[in-house]
Amino acid sequence: MGAPRGIRSPCSRGEPMVAFIVRRLLQSVLVMLTVALVGFALFTYVGDPVNNMVGQDTSLADRERLREELGLNDPFPVQFARFVVNAAQADFGISYRHGRPVEDLLIERAPATLELSFAAGLFALVVGVPMGIYTALNRHGWLSKAFLTVSLIGISLPTFLIGILLILVFSVWLGWLPSFGRGETVQIGWWSTGLLTRDGLVALILPAITLGLFQMTLIMRLVRAEMLEVLRTDYIKFARARGLSARAINFGHALKNTLVPVITITGLQLGSVIAFAIITETVFQWPGMGLLFIQAIEFVDIPVMAAYLVLVAFLFVLINLIVDILYFVVDPRLRVQGGGAGL
Amino acid sequence: MTEPGEIPLEAPREAPREAPLEAPGTRLGRLRATAWRAWDSDILYSFLRSPVTILAAVVALTLVAASLAAPMIAPTNPFALETVDLMAAFTPPVWMEGGSWDYVLGTDDQGRDLLSAILYGMRISLFVGVASVLFAMVLGVGLGLLAGYAGGWIDGLLMRIADVQISFPAILIALLIDGVARGLLPREVHHEVAIWVIIFAIGAPGWVQYARTVRGSTMVEKNREYVMAAHIMGVHPVVIALRHVLPNAMGPVLVIATIHLAIAVITEATLSFLGVGLPPTEPSLGTLIRIGNDFLFSGEWWITLFPGVALVLLVLSVNLLGDWLRDALNPKLR
Predict the structure, then answer these.
(1) Which residues lie in Basic and acidic residues bias regions (chain B) (predicted)?
(2) pTM for the complete prediction?
(3) What does the pLDDT read at residue A11?
């Protein structure tokens, strides 16, 4: 790829793009159906739903009636179809443990997880990208070496340990920051936010750093590697020969071409952030969906497990789809091949 | 792997041809040839050139040796209830006030010596890590060979599954497998087999990277002349795949396995920390950290910190070794 290339508009080859999107959509639907099948299998084969709903002294006849009413005696495809239809309407039944509809529980918990993930992602980008640029431009500086060492340690430290260490230093020893919960939250409609109070913002700091640290090191290493790669290319040499300023070369030419993979990976990592939020939420007792899921596993609360699984899978599929399509739009080479292979 | 043809100018390259001359065909002769090849290799050279790698290797070997020898070198056996003194609970490390040389790193809430608990815990962490890596490796290499060698719809199907699976984080899949096992197995049975469930849960999602790498090398190798020659000689395809193709694909597999080991140890620690891993009767490093986490606020920081430090040292040294191995086996990166 060269900087002064003739850039075609993304829509100049509209047809293969539509075909590509349709194919990816079909693939996504297939993945979702597979995940739904796993979720449904959980419901059906792990534990007996009737046993979980009735008391010890319910007669066999009553159980059988309930079984019939719930449709548990229907053939497999009918039951599965019902599960999929219900899931598509966000109806996952009643939590065994909380005795409330699962979708209510999830909606209640979603803002906490989303705010935490967003804050973590922001932290990772705002700190990771400049560090990556710096280490690429000053390859042999001592600060670069310090950054790289820190990043290696960051990758080797498990998320939960980072959280514990941060709590130990900033909450227990220094007493600066709170170590659990969301602090004071404000209710806006169904969304409860901690971003509007000082208390809530302070409570967000440690969890967000914990969750974002791994992504930060990843982004930093990625930006560094991509920058080094780009800086070796001919068009950068040419730009130097033309006498462009270092600033124009580094930021105008090199960084711009670095950002495509960075955006892709960051997008893909959004899913992992939500998954790793499970750990951070456990360490900080953050009342989000991840904590709900962990407790569901401990108590074998199948409806919550299945719902969380389907929800997270949906997020993943959605993110992957968007990233793939964006990639297709941004990188003309993929269009020439007819949009195959993927990454 | 380094191919001799790539560096024709280097003089010592002739040595391996000399060595077998001394005692052709004997075991000693072959051993000497192997030893000479190892001594002469680029890998050893790059190893000796990197102090960080040497340090990492020393740390990793020390930790592995210490955990293997735990029953012999640990001051006490943390699992033997008769040696545990409840009165000694929450003893701080030796250099703090109230510490004692009986418990160098202090004790936990049940009076177990922390140093011994860490040694035994590391044993369990390493066992789970190595076992799940081996499981993932066998599964992934097998499926990768199959996909690369068979091609066609088998290849297509396996790689689509891999595509889908790689987009989900391994920890999520491990959590799910663990959750299902908890639902399917009665509580007592689950306690018994928890360690195998964890190994499966950590290993199963790991096959993708091995499979992709081996598939790639297999597709390259299977069109080479030596494979065709083997075909013509009537060697069974399975034998060709295992004895001829696989050895040429093993370099990258080793690199992945090393880095995977670090990830597997972290994943196990995380699961145990979340309380869905190993039962407290067999505490791994993650379980110890989980126990200590309850006492963080009452000032007994050492119960958390020391197992944490042990975990980080282990993972960091393995990661460093993996990084070095990757660079050493891939001359293009140098």
Answers:
(1) 11-20
(2) 0.78
(3) 41
